Amino acid sequence: MAYLSDIEIAQQCKMKPITEIAKTAGIEDKYLEQYGRYKAKVDLSIMNECKKDNGKLVLVTAITPTPAGEGKTTTTIGLADGLRRIGKNVMVALREPSLGPVFGVKGGAAGGGYAQVVPMEDINLHFTGDFHAIGAANNLLAAMLDNHIHQGNKLGIDVRKITWKRCVDMNDRQLRFVTDGLGGKVNGVPREDGFDITVASEIMAVLCLSTSITDLKNRLANIIVGYTYDDKPVRCGDINAQGAMTALLKDALKPNLVQTLEGTPALVHGGPFANIAHGCNSVTATRLAMKLGDYAITEAGFGADLGAEKFLDIKCRLADLKPSAVVIVATIRALKMHGGLAKTELGSENLEALEKGLPNLLRHVSNIKNVYKLPSVVAVNRFPTDTDAEVELIIEKCKALGVNVVLSDVWAKGGEGGMELAEEVVKLCEEPNDFSFSYELDGSIEDKIEAIVKNVYGGDGINVLPAAKKQIDALTALGYDKLPICVAKTQYSFSDDPTKLGAPEGFTVTIKNVKISAGAGFIVVLTGDIMTMPGLPKVPAAEKIDVDENGTITGLF
Fold it and tell me: pLDDT digits over 431-489, tens only?
């Protein structure tokens, strides 16, 4: 049987005008700024004027990812469509895709099958220009910083201690480490420099955590860009760049309204990666989804040790949000990979491999239940090759932890395949919960990193390298030790070693680098071989993307 590709399914959808979707969501025309017929931005003034009580916040997360795929975004969208089919008023809040994965190895992030947000091509490519605005603001700050040094360096900035990088929204390993300012005095001051991918820029984190234009401007001013010869921090506000940067970002701060294939309103806004940043969509989009819907369904990137941990410990803490329920997405295929099977061996029943891989799921489930004290359900994306015996094994193991398992078929059936999951989520949202964080803010920086490693990753502790220890001491002396922690770590393992699958034990996490994101309001901790500028694979997805003479795009997924 020939299946349609994601882009073919999306292109067959007859989209409703965005004005109609806005009416469904309860957004009046005066708040709507249209970008063509099927996209719009929503003015933030709606937040102060909408009198409805906040809806329930539901987080969709997943097991540790594998090449077999899990389908977290697909489940998020299918769950929202399922809730709408059972008569609930629902909004989806998702991240915007980065061009890096779109042209690299992972593809887009608009869902899949019959659970997608559309227009799929626009969302996965330029969309409403938010990422371009973030990149422009980031690079304006870099240009003004280097210009300050070139024009006499009144602040006494040490070019060896500049921490601010340039950025581009593309996987481009060639730009990780560069030397610039060459060619004589007229061309600037020679120095070592580098690029991050736009989703790793602190501007992305700042935009996603800001609640207003004033808050955005204040956060931008607080960004530390480097240090003086006598080790005093230099902030964006010291070179007076925050006003111009806010001018570039004022429209990007407004959430983007689109629709699912079934016409459910969706807010798609902001896009930090969860392995190198905090991995959640914007606070403004989440709050707006809660303000407009009785249920706001959102997702956080990669496994629950990354996106969910940061959603709960950083975003919910800083934005004062309290989730009502968590959905943990898994596939039997991925769990068998965690149990040691190769991707080519996943098609036949193998209870032994599944049993070996199940501890990965069970640790994520236990963390949500016992560390964060939130009610949860496991959503198993069913594949035709999954056997009843394999499904029964998952149900039995999760039941022992007091968590239900629901089979989800949203990829093939859209909202219809998510109705059972929707019923379970509604039930969970009525349960009282004692939402807690995995660490408190009053400990030292090391204490908080260690709490994440022990409580969430299941490790024995941390190994802080001398350079990182020096950075921790410096940040503590500057008074930044009470901020939350954002760990940059491989997405493929609970540990900092991507080869340790399943639920590894007896490991320590090596802390290589610790830096401050003072505008975002958290401390970034780099572990393992994590990089803030990815590279393209041997055969990039970009090689398969094409456009015909009518402008129809093919090969995007």
Answer: 999 999 999 999 999 999 999 999 999 999 999 999 999 999 999 999 999 999 999 99
By annotation, the residues acting in catalysis are 72, 74, 95, 106, 274, 302, 383, 411
Name the residue among 405, 362, 365 with its Cα closest to residue 386: 405
pLDDT in tens, 54-66: 999 999 999 999 8
Tell which residue, 403, 410, 355, 356, has the closest CA to residue 381.
410
**Which residue type does 176 have?**
R
Q: Provide the 3-class DSSP secondary structure of residue 368.
A: helix
* Whole-number Å distance between alpha carbons of 9 and 21: 20
Give the 3-state DSSP-derived string for 507-518, with helices as H, strands as E and coil as C: CEEEEEEEEEEC
* Residues whose CB is less than 8 angstroms from the CB of residue 197 and which lie 6 or more positions away in sequence, other chains included: 98, 100, 167, 168, 169, 170, 171, 273, 532, 533, 534
How many Cβ atoms sit within 10 Å of the Cβ of residue 370? 12
| Contact by Cβ (8 Å): 134, 204 | yes
Q: CB of 41 within 8 A of CB of 33? A: yes
**pLDDT confidence of residue 1:** 47
Among 409, 280, 308, residue whose Cα is nearest residue 64: 308
**Cβ atoms within 10 Å of 452's Cβ, excluding its own:** 25
Q: Which one-letter DSSP state was computed for residue 341?
A: -
Q: Is 351 exposed, middle or buried (0-12, 13-18, 19+ CB in 10 A)?
A: middle
DSSP 17-37: PHHHHHHHHT--GGGEEESSS
Place of tokens 């991507």: 498
The Cα–Cα gap between 463 and 402 comes to: 35
- pTM for the complete prediction? 0.95
* Half-sphere exposure at residue 259, Cβ-oriented, CA atoms within 13 angstroms: 22
